[in-house]
Write a structure and sequence with these properties.
The complex is a heterotrimer.
Chain A: H1 18-32, E1 39-47, E2 55-62, E3 67-71, H2 80-89
Antiparallel strand pairs in A: 1-2, 2-3
Helix pairs in contact in A: 1-2
Chain B: E1 11-14, E2 19-24, E3 30-34, E4 38-42, E5 48-53, E6 58-63, E7 69-74, E8 77-82, E9 87-92, E10 99-101, E11 107-112, E12 115-120, E13 125-130, E14 137-141, E15 144-149, E16 152-157, E17 165-168, E18 173-178, E19 184-189, E20 194-198, E21 201-208, E22 218-220, E23 226-229, E24 235-239, E25 251-253, E26 260-265, E27 272-276, E28 280-284, E29 299-302, E30 307-312, E31 317-322, E32 326-331
Antiparallel strand pairs in B: 1-32, 2-3, 3-4, 4-5, 6-7, 7-8, 8-9, 10-11, 11-12, 12-13, 14-15, 15-16, 16-17, 18-19, 19-20, 20-21, 22-23, 23-24, 24-25, 26-27, 27-28, 28-29, 30-31, 31-32
Chain C: E1 9-15, H1 22-31, E2 38-42, E3 54-57, E4 62-67, E5 70-75, H2 76-85, E6 94-98, H3 106-114, H4 116-121, E7 122-132, H5 136-141, H6 151-158, E8 161-165, H7 172-185, E9 190-193, E10 234-242, H8 247-261, E11 265-272, E12 279-286, E13 289-297, E14 305-313, H9 317-325
The chains are: A alpha+beta, B mainly beta, C alpha/beta.
Amino acid sequence: MNLVNPGNTTAAAPRASAAHLADLKDVVRSELELDTETTVLIQQLACAEPGCPPVETVVAVLGTSRRSWKFSTPTTDVTTAALRDVIAKYPRGREHDHDD
Amino acid sequence: MTPTATAFNGWAADVDDAVAAVSPGPDGRIAVAGSEGSLTLLSPTGEVEVRQTLSLGCLAVAWSPAGDRIAVGCIDGIVIVDGVGHQIARHRGGWCSSLVWSFDGARLAAGMGKSSVVYGADGAELFRHDRDSTVTTVGWINRRVASAAYGGVHVCHVSQGAAADVLPFTGSLLTMAISPDRRWAASGNQDATLHVWRVGKAGEELSMSGYPTKITALAFSPDSMLLASGGGQDVTVWDFGGRGPRGSTPRILAAHRQSVTGLAWSPRGDMLAAVADDGCVAVWEPRAGSPGIPLDVLDRLDRSVPASAVCWVGSDRLVAAWADGTVATHRVG
Amino acid sequence: MTTTIDDRVPVTVITGFLGSGKTTLVNRILTENHGRRIAVIENEFGEVGIDDALVLDAEEEIFEMNNGCICCTVRGDLIRILGALMRRRDKFDQILIETTGLADPAPVAQTFFVDDEIRDRLRLDAIVTVVDAAHVLDHLNEIKPEGVENESVEQVAFADRMLLNKTDLVSEEQLAAVENRLRSINRGAGIVRTQNAKVDLAQVLDIGAFDLQRVLTDDPAFLEQDDHQHDQSVSSVGFLIDGDVDVEKLNSWLGELLASKGVDIFRSKGILALAGQDRQYVFQGVHMLFDGTEGRPWGEQESRTNRMVFIGRHLDREALEAAFRACLVDA
């Protein structure tokens, strides 16, 4: 399941390992004390539109109220520490990762 | 000059399922149904808003024109959810590969096994018409519902006990299209023929043969003037202006190396997109072509896994999907 | 000689009367599958019950198809369902199709000849018929009204392999009688005796019965003339005839034969020596549908012997043999 990078040169952004994805999801579940029914999703998005970062990672909690946090990096570059920080600071979610 | 193969210029997302169908919703949101049973709702920027596993396999998805309902057809029934994925209704017991909402989103026509069924937006069954074999496609002709199955197209008023108008064809109808002006009905068949009826006028049937293989994709242009058909590597476009296509030479749209499996006209009807297992999503301006002379693409996206679905989300922006779960947007031209 | 690896998904059709043990066989295949990914399409709802296997229900839908001048029937439901299965990302190692005991196997087999999408991705490996040793003779002997087929005879005639099941309930003599009877209808289909449908899966899966490269190589003995001609309408006729075949005459004869008698010919298979050709010509047929291709080259010391078998109704051995001989180059 390769995400193709828009543009004509580079190969697809490397996919994060299953272990890394599981670690990140664990962080979300523990920080937010979620039950096992709630879906946690980690999505790597490639975007070629002007103004978009070429690759970004969306960490989302799906449920009655959807919450998400975005990082302008591939998923492999999102550390558990960074994710924990962001969730602690913005428990309701955060749309972009530069400081406003 | 043939444009070289380009990658898409919008966003790309991964829905973790082989995409079976896509349907545009309000404000650029997109519903994606997967062959392994998933439903994913994407935001206008490609983020997953909702993801659910609904069945062992999904075949079709249709976002209501009213924006508040999404219907998903599965191998074992139908599921209706609201705009945030909460289940409104579920009906088990039949193969559902075709779903069409009425123009106001109040009613949903669906194939359900060997029946064509009409549901209200709340999921209540309002009407059912039985066929002898599995319904492959449904459609609306004003307030009547049309269903295609082996043996022909049946057109019924949505009231119990109503007799069906039969548009007969002895054979297996795999797909059906009704022209937006409701004058014509067409079927793509297992025996590699296209059959055409004039709605409400018996005795004006046409049969087009010579297709390399069975026809599984058909689409009328929004102005009802053109009918695009699959059934081979080339898309064959028949002109329905005036007296219809009888005796005419069709336009030929060339690009694919394998049989075309899906077709979608742009909202203004100036462009047509097609997908095939060779991974290519091709876009042409059919009216720029001349009958009988293969027309080259206006734009194309090429990947190495089967391209399985395409729809338009604006006058020049399309959403394409592939069997590896990739869903991407692309502004054409 | 180039060998193309056929990576299409193999499909095994399992047929047999209710109670013959075919569902037990399907369940055995699923439990003993050792990590192979198997999908099952069953006709008798709810019988197959193994977790982890993908099991779909199908109601048989027989569609008549006109393929040019050939009319045949296909299983429309299988075209639809197999198409959907092949769109998934998980690749199946094997697909099993369980048909009802009342089914005519011809439409299933014909489906694999006729639909391009299916031919591209799937190959029919074999038709396996499970037979109840204690009751099959009664079924075979049942007198049906005029024009009505005896399905059990058809299922035996179409088999590539038969499992003679419930052997524990029947004496050795009866078993021999049953086997004789089965062979008189269908010589060439191997018979495996089983109890409780317990069998080495290699006998049932990946047999390559429709593989044109493997046609007739497994059991040449069946082509011998049968001395015990039963007076029955369905039988097997096989030939071993030396000599080169004139292709034009062959086409003319086969074309006419299948068009006029195709309804009565259930299966046909053959390896032919065509005049002027180094390679064998191998063919398979179901009723009027016919599929042939070049096989391997004839060996240096190998005699160019034509082998073929027809299984069907009211077959006239002498007439078929004479008509074939008339196709030889030095006829």
